[in-house]
Amino acid sequence: MILRLLIYPLLALAIAAVALADDTVYRWVDGKGTLHYGDNAHGAARAAPARALPADSSGIADLQMVRNGEATDVYVANRLGGPIELDLSFTAAHNVQSLPSLPLRQVIAANKRVLISRIEASAPGLPSSYAVGLLAMPGDPRAMPDDRTYSLPIDENSDWELGQLFHGGFSHTDEQNLYAVDLIVPVGTPVLAARDGVVMQVMSGFNSAGLNQAQYAERANIIRILHDDGSMAVYAHLQENGALVKVGQRVTVGEQIAFSGNTGYSSGPHLHFCLQVNRGMRLVSVPFRMVGPEGFLPLPGS
User: Fold this and answer.
1) Which residues belong to the signal peptide in this entry (predicted)?
2) Fewer CB near the terminus (10 Å): N or C of the chain?
3) What is the spatial distance between Cα 200 and Cα 251, in angstroms, rounded to a whole number?
4) What is the per-residue pLDDT across 154-207, written as a single tens digit (0 to 9) for each?
């Protein structure tokens, strides 16, 4: 059996924001390539607006700090076509209080901007400072996946073969990918929806692949489709600009959604498919059944 390597983005968002009296935020990248925001300039740091701090590269959410008199309102905008769960907390705090109190977790519906908390000084007139950290994860943790059979996400008459299956020792070992299947197909093979749903997330701007994990682990093009039961199908390693659908679009089983490719941390062209749920700020893959031209695919435990 030929094995194909897959790692796609964790798809969790982590943002740090620092509240400032004059609304000045500085942006800089350290020697390890990590993006920072803070109240002091560091070397080549540049001033950035405090009202809307940028989202992460996978486009999950925006953290927005908006002055409201002597307080600061903390908003989160969900950029996905499905729900996200967020975890907001203080990472530093001096003479401040929040309402509702931090830390807190909350689910935000698709494409909604929500006021999460209001932060103000505990003792007005005295110096105060704080930093907040946001984690965001696709999916509603209350989702209960149906017992459902999935269609093959490619034309059964196309040129394909099975690669890694469930528990594949090469790369299907973490909880996001434990129950995943790799279909080895040439670049440009039409990718079909395996089930009806709504397009939740599209990433299609990457154009290369390789086995350097540091360089390619977060450079796989994907489509995430939300199903009516709250589960989410992930179609990964798609061709650059190969997505044929948009966020928020409803698709039906068998409809073409993309072209396969070879992007991200991968050893060759293939389509990676898995079914995921959010289990309390954790993306977890779950078993599924899939039908091919000769019956059910030999997926262990499905």
Assistant:
1) 1-21
2) N
3) 11
4) 999 999 999 888 877 666 778 888 898 999 999 999 999 999 999 999 999 888
User: Which strands, in side-by-side order, build the sheet including 61-68?
Assistant: 61-68, 71-78, 113-121, 96-99
Find where tokens 């609304």 sit.
Answer: 23
Give the other-Cβ count within 10 Å of 171's Cβ. Answer: 19
Take residue 38 and report the two structure tokens written for it: 């803070």
**276 touches 283 (CB < 8 A):** yes
Beta strands per DSSP E along 122-179: 129-138, 149-151, 161-162
Sheet holding 295-296, edge to edge: 149-151, 289-292, 295-296
Task: Please give the average per-residue pLDDT across 38-45, as a whole number.
Answer: 49
Share of the chain above pLDDT 70, in %: 78
- Options 2.70.70.10, 3.80.10.10, 3.40.50.2300, 2.40.30.20; which CATH number does 149-296 get? 2.70.70.10
Token duo for residue 279: 């289990």
DSSP string, 198-252: EEEEEE-----EES-HHHHTT---EEEEE-TTS-EEEEESEEEEEE---TT-EE-
Of the CATH numbers 2.60.40, 2.60.120, 2.30.110, 1.10.150, which one belongs to the domain with range 13-138?
A: 2.60.40
Joined tokens for residue 285? 């893959």
Of 299, 260, 57, the residue nearest 164 (C-alpha): 299
Tokens 């105060």 belong to residue: 128
Residue 117 buriedness (CB in 10 A; 0-12 / 13-18 / 19+): buried
